[in-house]
Amino acid sequence: MEKLHPLLGFILLTLICLNTAQGSNPRFDPWNQGSTLSIMHVDDPSSPFKPTKSPSLWEKALFEVGAKDEARLGYLNSLVGKRSWVPIASARQIIQSATYVVRANVGTPPQPFLMAMDTSNDAAWIPCSGCVGCSSTVFYSSKSTTYKILPCQAPQCQQVPNPTCAVAGCSFNVTYGSSSFQATLSQDTLTLASDNITGYSFACLNKVTGNSVPPQGLLGLGRGPISFLSQTQNLYHSTFSYCLPSFKSSNFSGTLRLGPTGQPFRIKFTPLLKNPRRSSLYYVNLMGISVGRRLLNIPAAALAFDPATGAGTIFDSGTVITRLVAPAYVALRNEFRRVISKRVSGEISTLGGFDTCYTVPMAALAPTITFHFAGPINMSLPTDNVLIHSTAGTITCLAMASAPDNINSVLNVIANMQQQNHRILFDVPNSRLGISREPCT
Ligand SMILES: *[C@@H]1O[C@H](CO)[C@@H](O)[C@H](O)[C@H]1NC(C)=O
Ligand SMILES: *[C@@H]1O[C@H](CO)[C@@H](O)[C@H](O)[C@H]1NC(C)=O
Ligand SMILES: *[C@@H]1O[C@H](CO)[C@@H](O)[C@H](O)[C@H]1NC(C)=O
Ligand SMILES: *[C@@H]1O[C@H](CO)[C@@H](O)[C@H](O)[C@H]1NC(C)=O
Hints:
The protein is of the alpha+beta class. The chain folds into two domains: about 10-55 and about 80-260, Acid Proteases (Cathepsin D, subunit A, domain 1, Beta Barrel); about 270-435, Beta Barrel (Cathepsin D, subunit A, domain 1), CATH 2.40.70.10. It contains eight helices and 28 strands. The strands form four sheets. Strands 2-3-10-4-9-8 form a six-stranded mixed barrel. Strands 16-15-21-22 form a four-stranded antiparallel beta sheet, with helices on one face. Strands 19-20-24-23 form a four-stranded antiparallel beta sheet, covered by helices on one side. Strand 6 (about 165) and strand 7 form a beta hairpin. The protein is globular and about 70 Å long. The two termini are about 20 Å apart. One 2-acetamido-2-deoxy-beta-D-glucopyranose binds near residues 251, 253 and 441. One 2-acetamido-2-deoxy-beta-D-glucopyranose binds next to loops.
């Protein structure tokens, strides 16, 4: 998605102009009402980020993103073993694949962005005018009457990595692999749906190298010290929910609902677990997995939460395909294959990162996969959340994979493909995560 087709420039500008008109009067923005925002998949036909050449199908895009997941899992795993310094916009938190975006406005008068939504990040950052290496959509701070740069003495400046006192104020550099970022710690009004959040602290990007940057900024929904949740505590009380639309969805049918108001009350909860080493992540206790009716025999250590090593299970909105540590994945895959083999004869092949693919039609034959969480609650995945079909529709794969094969790989990640068409409620004050089936299509 970082490769924007030049022809899209015009369309993008048009969208932005339309958006500015809506943004200046949020009440009339059809996509955003109250504290509820529409969520769009980046490959949604109405997305400015969708691939333009040879209209590619969802599935093709998804296969491409599957490769990006590797980088993200490396990132998530690198987090769990380390001490958290939870900055705004650490590079580790920036290098992500943005899968879902929401509309947000920044400044007065408001300037519109499609920001990537990411539950495993605390970062909030926006490409700013003059930024070298950013996309064409940037924030013009000089056009905002409410913009200010935070001074070095500001307490927030202590929470960014290696801050320096530039003439202008609090500035910082971040490097990650071959990428690096230079930003100014800034404040301005952030408008989400019809809520104005004044004095919102974010990283104003001045220079970016590397190519994994969501082009219009990042809205981190993690729960660390300087996160969106902590900055909007009085407004949203660290409570939000989303329903992610399917990859096949063709309109803004998903929603991000901020604050306790309007959240479903008929929803089942599992406790959220806290890992002091990685305060942003939303850990839960995954106790078992069933394929069909059979409860898999998975060694307890593969699922157990361990703050010391970071092991356990998280819900993440930024990873596409669920990854399980090897003993759990192998058990699941073997049982899945066994069930299929009893119903249809067909060779098993691999495709991209997937190791359980079939060329025979088997969608109707796939067993339900159920995650059993503490509570107890069961999250049963319909076929759409379990199978992925190749572009031509001739290959169907089990849409899960083993965690990357290295010693730091201790995390089970419940990813967005498996969460689609469920409402996931993050209730931080009560330390619980709600799950219910909801067709947001
Ligand atoms: C939010 O700010 C905009 C101007 O930026 C203003 O028009 C609007 O009335 C404000 N909304 C609320 C709910 O205060
Ligand atoms: C940050 O990066 C910029 C440009 O890349 C450079 O001019 C500046 O000296 C760097 N600052 C620090 C503290 O490394
Ligand atoms: C979006 O999808 C929903 C659910 O399928 C449907 O009810 C609605 O009419 C669609 N909206 C548009 C604008 O296509
Ligand atoms: C969850 O699944 C298990 C195993 O299939 C079953 O025994 C249990 O009754 C289910 N619990 C709920 C709340 O549905």
